Amino acid sequence: MATTKAEVVEQKALRIPFRLSMEYEYALGAHAERFFGELRDHGRILGVRCPSCNRVYVPPRPVCGICYAETREWVPVSDEGSLVGCTVVELPFIDPMTGEQRPVPYGFAMVRLDGADTAMYHFLEETDPKRIHVGQRVKAVFRDQRTGSLLDIQHFRTLEEAR
Amino acid sequence: MSAAHWCVRQRIEIPFQYTAGLAVTRFLQGLTNKKIVTSVCSKCGWRSVPPLSFCGRCWQPITELRELRGTGQLLSYSSSGDRTFGLIHLDGADSSLVHWVVADGGRLKIGSPVEPVWRAERSASILDIEHFRAAAALGKPLTAGAGSYINKRLVE
Amino acid sequence: MGRKVGIVATGQTKHGPKRLDVNLRELITEAVTRALEDAGLRMEDVDAVFLGNMEPFEGFMFPELWSVEGWGGYLKPSVKFNTGGTVGTTTTMAAYYYVAAGLYDTVLAVGFEKQSDGHTQAAITTVGDPVWERTMMAGAVGNFAVMASTYIHESGVTPEQAAKVAVKARRNACNNEYAHLQMPNLTVEEVLASQILAHPIRKLDMCPQSDGAVAMVIAEESKARKLAPRPAWIRAVATAHEQQYMGDSPKRLAIMRSQIAASQKVYKAVGITNPRKELDVAEIYEVATYAEMAMYENLGFCERGHGGKLIDEGVTSMNGELPVNPSGGVLSTNPIGATAMIRVAEAALQVMGKAGTRQVPNVRTALATGYGGNAWTDALILASN
Question: What does DSSP say about strands A80-89 and A56-57: parallel, antiparallel, or unpaired?
């Protein structure tokens, strides 16, 4: 129990502070293991293809949700792609996973890699909103030391000037 | 095939501030003054600690708060490590309170009379009560009173 | 399908940024008491209670358990739902199913959230996939900003058009005694000058976080006719989900597959082919100004790319052809566990003719939608017959 000193607010009601801290260990599953193994060891990005509709999925997953068909064919996708959506976050907030404020501004986007039919969230190197746009070509910047996580890609670098 | 599987470790921390509401605020403030307060429904008479502002069975507001002596009887208890917590039926209330219990000389027993032990520094927290003390010196052992209380609760 | 079911009464709390005067249980009781009074019923007359809430926000599991006597749950059957932003409409639909199927005759549906007791941004992070999404997420604002950028690219809507949506919402809210944000004098200029949260979303483009609860009494036909002179009959309901990752539907606001699917289903069920003409009012779940315009398109109120045109032409304002969110919408009030149900309650008030100063004249058919999770949609049609 962690109830601590309650504060009287506006001389009316008390609020009882409590901090919930939950630790997790998420099992990745076979598809994610293969993806991150390839990323870590070879700096390559893989997707899976649905045998029925031919969509290539990144992130990979065992079943195509639209066809309900098992996805077994692994295909490499490019480390270059286009921005489907993008933003620069200005509002400071506490990152619940670190307890620290995430440094702002930071760019993040929905990136569709060439060869994939789905897009993925990742960070952008650029933090000036005037220098990013939907459709912009981008390229993954890989870290030298990779551990098998999405952050083995440090961020995406824009390849062309803003429109 | 590797026997080891990959996991991602994460910790999520979310800060909360529970709004006590005005009745529970009075209860917590009472604790600062070494008082335990119950609410009393004017219709069914149900006495709740911590107090309620609305009776969910009669469906009407509750306005009466009453101070209790603080003594009670131990309805049940369980140990976790070297600490014990119990369900305490406070004299003058119908609901039970969960808190730490400590046997002061002798063993804990269902029906043991208990009384609160207050912390020296209090801050409107349920932990202003350090624990409830069960002591043989406090009074009578389990009587028919506690038993009929238990029956009354099941029937209602 | 099944018996005819109607909404006969509603109750809402005064939604606000921090309801310090009540704890969660008392907040719920406020809405439930008002709904029962509106129906002229006692708690004993309710057969079952259906509850909706988004759990991480209050910081304890089973908030319905911890508040059970506050919603009349003692010795009563109940079902609790947790489907994120859609939970209010999900809960309504579940209540409808049980009554339509004949299991209960008169039920209570309750949506509640004490947003200020928790930390919304931190809690919303748990919605993201831990492996693929969580690290990047910047709460709901970040997601909506990325989605809005795609929509702007597709449609060409401008920040001025978005600002008009914000002005419409907060001015409409002035007719709603329960709304959180009421801004009678809000201007487009003020919206455009408000702080940027994540480009292009500004503070006044985004919904607030509110403490609030809503309750509705839902009954089968013969009871409903006794309880209300003009019940809001639930004529059609639909739910549609998306694929699991946020990038699986890359244009997910601009072309919201679930919203198109769910709305098409309910329109078909009641024979609507031109929603703009055949709906009299819509209460839609718009988290941000850009989202509202995209939803006009997904819901078939206009052609693709014309969402901005609709707001420019005033089609969706109070005296327009199809008023959208006379209540002020999510942009004015957002206690997440209640928000989608507030859409239904407000749509029901319109059909019942009990919407006071925000009443749209001659409402016979209303649409209510819920949005949540990874761009899921619930849609309901309420009608006076």
Answer: unpaired
Among C90, C8, C87, residue whose Cα is nearest residue C46: C8
Residue whose C-alpha is closest to residue A59's, from A87, A97, A32, A22: A32
Out of C126, C197, C245, name the one closest to residue A118 (CB). Answer: C245
ipTM of the shown complex: 0.90
Looking only at Cα atoms, what is the longest distance across chain C? 55
A62 shares contact with chain C (CB less than 8 Å): no
Tell me the pLDDT band of B136, cut-offs 50, 70 and 90: low
Burial class (CB in 10 A: 0-12, 13-18, 19+), A115: middle
pLDDT of B146 higher than 80? no
Give backbone dihedrals phi and psi of B18, rounded to 5 degrees, phi first: -75, 130
**Nearest in space to A113 (alpha carbons), one of A34, A72, A60, A162:** A60
Name the residue among A39, A15, A76 with its Cα closest to residue A152: A39
Q: How many CA atoms lie within 13 A of C148 on its CB side?
A: 30
Contacts of C289 (CB under 8 A, 6+ apart): C162, C163, C165, C166, C169, C191, C205, C206, C331
Cross-chain residue pair B11–A23, CB shorter than 8 Å: yes
Phi-psi region of B34 (alpha: psi -120 to 50; beta: other; left: phi over 0): left
> C211 near C27, Cβ under 8 Å?
yes
* Burial (0-12, 13-18, 19+ Cβ within 10 Å), B64: exposed
Ranges C21-35, C61-75, C115-129, C218-232: which has the least confidence? C115-129
Q: Which residues of A touch B81 (CB under 8 A)?
A: none
- Interchain pair C125, B12: CB under 8 A: yes
Chains in touch with C (≥3 Cβ pairs < 8 A): A, B
Q: Which CATH superfamily is domain C5-120+209-227 in?
A: Thiolase/Chalcone synthase (3.40.47.10)
Q: Tell me which of C23, C136, C257, C374 to substitute to probe the interface with A (most A C-beta atoms closer than 10 Å).
A: C136
Hey, is the C-beta of C125 within 8 angstroms of any chain B C-beta? Answer: yes
Worst-scoring range by mean pLDDT, B121-125, B137-141, C50-54, C303-307? B137-141
Domain residue ranges in chain B = 21-155
Whole-angstrom Cα distance, residue B69 to residue C175? 51
Cβ neighbours for C215, distance < 8 A, ≥ 6 positions apart:
C10, C11, C12, C28, C31, C32, C34, C35, C36, C71, C108, C109, C110, C111
Token look-up 């908030």 returns C63
- Please tell me the distance in Å from C290's CA to the nearest CA on chain A: 14
The pLDDT, as a whole number, for residue A162 is 66
The DSSP annotation for A39-88 comes to HHHH--EEEEE-TTT-PEESS--SEETTTTEE--EEEEE-SEEEEEEEEE
What does the pLDDT read at residue B137? 55
Q: Chain A closest CA to B152's CA: distance in Å? A: 31
Q: Name all chains with 3 or more CB-CB pairs below 8 Å to chain A.
A: B, C
Q: Which helix (H) or strand (E) holds B19?
A: strand B7-19
Cα C31 to Cα A128, B5, B6, B58, C15: the distances in Å are 46, 49, 47, 17, 10
- Nearest C-alpha of chain C: how many angstroms from B67? 22
How are beta strands A153-158 and A106-113 bridged, if at all?
unpaired
- Taking CA C140 as the corner, what is the angle to CA A9 and CA C20, rounded to the nearest 5 degrees? 15
A141 within 8 A of A107, measured Cβ to Cβ: no
Closest C-alpha among B110, B111, B108, B97 to residue B68: B97
Contact predicate C38/C239, CB 8 Å: no
Q: Provide the residue ranges of all domains of chain A, joining segments of one domain with +.
A: 30-158
CB C347 within 8 A of CB C360: no
pTM greater than 0.90 (yes/no): yes
**CB contact burial C308-347 (16+ within 10 A = b; e otherwise):** bbbbeeebbbbeeebbbbbbbbbbbbbbbbbbbbbbbbbb
